[in-house]
Design brief:
The protein has 512 residues and is of the alpha+beta class. It folds into two domains: 316 residues, BirA Bifunctional Protein, domain 2 (2-Layer Sandwich); 123 residues, Anticodon-binding domain (Rossmann fold, 3-Layer(aba) Sandwich). The chain is built from 17 helices and 18 strands. An eight-stranded mixed β-sheet has the order 1-5-6-13-12-11-7-10, with helices on both faces. Strands 15-14-16-17-18 form a five-stranded mixed β-sheet. Strands 2-4-3 form a three-stranded antiparallel β-sheet. Helix 3 packs parallel to helix 11, helix 4 crosses helix 10 and helix 5 runs antiparallel to helix 10. It is elongated. The termini are far apart. It is an enzyme of class 6 (ligase). Keywords: Aminoacyl-tRNA synthetase, ATP-binding, Cytoplasm, Ligase, Nucleotide-binding, Protein biosynthesis. It is found in: Cytoplasm.
């Protein structure tokens, strides 16, 4: 038996399933989009607030996606005092805790917004991640439907602020009370049917993904997806299924007024809760039209449900209607990119008194992908840095190169000094090419003695610089290159960058 030591096995680099690394382009596109959304929220008078990623699990409570067990649907751990904590599932439940804990110090109505990561311990899949960003706005302490209507109008304004034109999006609006009335009418009233009602609502919520037939399967025995996984259905009989399908497609035929009239006369005529929800929908519809947010922006849609249990009144959803290429270039409908509703019971759990609340959440990652593929984000790329090359490696020379770099940075110009192995100068040029650096700064011994710097326009000289391997070849090329005194470094770099910007602008205009 060999006594040689076994070579330690290398650690395998693995990204956890359902999580993703983010590129500079995605981060910058997200920042650009969030800034535009924030501007709309601020215009409506909302203020920022931030809550931690962890909450005590009982604060999230029964409003988890599938169960209130600590590790079902959420990522949980036990603190050293044996209390369960969970990564937040959304941004709404933590806000409810924040409001209740600080109730005596806040001004009602409390109007806030916040962006942050949320986490879901669910099966990952294409476009379905366990960590993603949401951007929420909420009004706590306003009982009237005008607060809900304002949320819908703000969602419409956000879509247009992001460059999505009318006709390419819609804000769909419904009311949980109406849905409760419909469910009562088909025999699903009472506390004993609470879980079954939630299953039905989640089935209806999948209309944009699975279509009418997929929803019908989820209302019945269940549905098998493309991977073979089976989702158990609500177990409704054929008559119950048909009445629900008729309801969710009703507003598509005959318009809003006809839908209201038919709903009131037949489907929910015997449900006081359903009729109350219908009146709220009518009032919201009046507010939309009074503020000139008509059907081309916001419309009543009985298929809008929202899957979470805590909604108690109006619910709404922002949907992209435009056909947009996905990452593979396939033309798809992105569907819902955000939504919300009224959740009057969420804060009240902590308070022992009614606290009305309404709000909505934007799925940042999903909406950003759609906007990028529409060409609405990331068009103005951050310029690559000016590269200060390293010709000499002694510490005095490095000090001079660092000084040039800092002078550019202090003037507001993005710059970096080459930090790799400077032995092969051609490698520095290759690095600059890969980085899309617009300009290279060069100073060798001869230039140092004369107190000058060579500045090369890498955009102009890109082709000619290919294959240059040493300092001598570099000096022979001298393409799109100028020599200036050290004191003129910043001014000349600014001038060359401005000329490059002008050329790019002409290219975008077709050379005009």
């Amino acid at each position: 038996m060999s006594d040689k030591k076994k070579k330690p096995q290398k650690l395998k680099a693995r990204l956890p399933r359902g999580f993703g690394d983010r590129s500079p382009a995605d981060i910058r596109a997200t920042d650009e989009m969030v800034a535009k959304i924030k501007a709309v929220y601020e215009r409506y008078g909302f203020d920022p607030v931030e809550t931690p990623m962890f909450e005590y699990t009982d604060a999230l409570g029964k409003f988890l996606p599938d169960s209130d067990r600590p590790n079902e649907g959420v990522f949980s751990l036990q603190d050293d005092d044996e209390q369960w904590m969970s990564l937040r599932y959304d941004l709404t439940a933590p806000l409810a805790r924040h409001v209740a804990e600080n109730f005596n110090d806040i001004q009602l109505p409390y109007r806030t917004y916040r962006a942050g990561w949320v986490f879901r311990n669910e099966k990952p899949g294409p476009g379905r991640f366990r960590q993603f960003m949401q951007f929420d706005a909420d009004t706590v302490g306003a009982p009237g439907v005008q607060a809900d209507a304002e949320m819908c109008m703000m969602m419409a304004d956000v879509m247009e602020a992001l460059g999505i034109k009318r006709g390419d999006y819609v804000i769909r609006v419904n009311n949980r009370k109406v849905l409760d009335g419909v469910l009562e009418a088909i025999g699903l009233g009472g506390d004993e049917n609470a879980e079954r009602r939630l299953t039905v609502l989640r089935a209806i919520d999948k209309l944009d993904k699975f279509g009418v037939e997929g929803v019908r399967q989820l209302l019945g025995a269940g549905r098998k997806d493309e991977s073979g996984d089976f989702t158990k259905g609500a177990g409704l009989d054929e008559e119950q299924q048909q009445r629900l399908v008729d309801f969710i497609v009703a507003a598509q035929h005959g318009g809003t007024e006809t839908f209201f009239a038919n709903l009131e006369a037949t489907t929910i005529a015997s449900s006081s809760r359903g009729l109350e929800g219908l009146e709220e929908l009518k009032d919201m519809s009046t507010l939309f039209y009074s503020a000139q947010y008509g059907g081309d922006r916001i419309r009543i849609d009985p298929s809008c449900v929202r899957g979470l249990e805590y909604y108690t009144g109006p619910v709404f959803e922002a949907e992209l209607l435009a056909e947009i290429p996905n990452e593979k270039g396939e033309i798809v409908r992105f569907g819902s990119v955000g939504g919300g509703g009224r959740y009057d019971g969420l804060v009240s759990r902590f308070m022992g008194q009614p606290v009305p609340a309404t709000g909505f959440s934007i799925g940042v990652s999903r909406l950003m992908t759609a906007l990028k593929n529409l060409g609405k984000l990331g068009q103005d790329q951050v310029a690559a840095p000016v590269l200060v090359t390293v010709m000499d490696r002694d510490i005095e020379a490095l000090g001079r190169y660092q000084r040039f770099t800092q002078e550019l940075r202090n003037a507001g110009i993005r710059a970096e000094m080459f930090q790799g192995n400077p032995k092969n100068f051609g490698n520095q040029l290759k690095y600059a090419d890969r980085r899309d650096c617009p300009i290279a700064i060069i100073q060798g011994g001869d230039e140092r003695e004369q107190g000058v710097i060579q500045i090369k326009d890498l955009i102009e000289g890109k082709r000619a610089s290919e294959g240059i391997e040493d300092n001598a070849a570099w000096r022979e090329a001298r393409v799109a290159q100028v020599t200036v005194p050290e004191s003129e470094l910043v001014a000349k770099v600014r001038e060359m960058l401005a000329a490059q910007d002008e050329d790019r602008a002409k290219d975008r205009m077709g050379g005009a």
